[in-house]
Amino acid sequence: MDEQDEYHWIEAARRGNPRAFAVLAEHYWPSIHRWLWGLTGSAHAADDLTQETFLKAWQMIARTRPDTNLRAWLYRIARNSFCDSHRKRQDGQLGKSLEGQSGRERDPADSLLDAEADELLQHACERLPVGLRAAFLLRAQEGLSFCEIGIALGVAADTARWRVFKARRMLLKQLGPWLEREEQDS
After folding, report:
1. pTM over cut 0.70
2. What are phi and psi for residue 150, nearest 5 degrees?
3. Residue 2, Cα to own-chain centre: how many angstroms?
4. Burial, 57: exposed, middle or buried (Cβ in 10 Å; 0-12, 13-18, 19+)?
5. Strand, helix or coil at 110?
6. Is 31 left (phi over 0), alpha (psi -120 to 50) or beta?
7. In this predicted structure, which of 25-34, 47-56, 113-122 has the lowest mean pLDDT?
8. Please, are residues 159 and 140 in contact by the beta-carbon 8 Å criterion?
9. How far apart are CA 75 and CA 170, in angstroms?
10. What is the rounded CA–CA span in Å between residue 154 and residue 148?
């Protein structure tokens, strides 16, 4: 969806057109769900939180300004829903597989190494503080700018940039021994 189409759909949704909002929801649902799954580690919890995010967005879209960055605004609602849910549960079970999917046949040894790397990255991400993990996943998985991450998380763009930097450093520190081993083995 290009900017002009998105603007058209946003304006129609702001005027109360449910079909227009459905088009926007369909466009943004996968990325919001993927990010929430990364935070919760549960497809079921991500389903619930994504649905809650879009219900809240529908209820509030008429009150948004015309220049609102919709993507960042949706991530902000998703973040607030996650925080509310996390406070209620306090179960500490966070994280998600960061696996990539490919349609081509692969060498089984490569597949095993990729699976091991995915599992190590997942566990390393789970050990990141939630604020750092949220910023890192928005940047690495969703490709948000630091400004958009700042809007989504309610922090300054420089703070978002620092959180991503800090998360990367922590991940490299955790994964360093495995990376060094892989480099020596190749």
Report:
1. no
2. -60, -45
3. 21
4. buried
5. helix
6. alpha
7. 113-122
8. no
9. 24
10. 10
Nearest to 32 by CA among 47, 19, 10, 17: 47
Could you please report the per-residue DSSP string of 31-93?
HHHHHHHHHHS-HHHHHHHHHHHHHHHHHHGGGS-TT--HHHHHHHHHHHHHHHHHHHH----
Instruction: Determine the 3-state secondary structure of 142 from DSSP.
Output: coil
Percent of the chain surpassing pLDDT 90: 47
Alpha carbons 185 and 95: distance in angstroms, whole number: 29
Residue type for position 38: G
Confidence of residue 26 (pLDDT cuts 50, 70, 90): very high
Q: Which residue has the higher pLDDT, 38 or 87?
A: 38
d(CA 132, CA 125): 9
Give the pair of three-digit tokens for residue 129.
């503080």
Q: Rounded CA gap, 68 and 10, in Å? A: 10
Return all residues near 150 (Cβ < 8 A) that are at least 6 apart.
Answer: 156, 157, 158, 159, 160
Closest residue by Cα to residue 171 from 148, 137, 146: 137
CA distance 81 to 73: 12
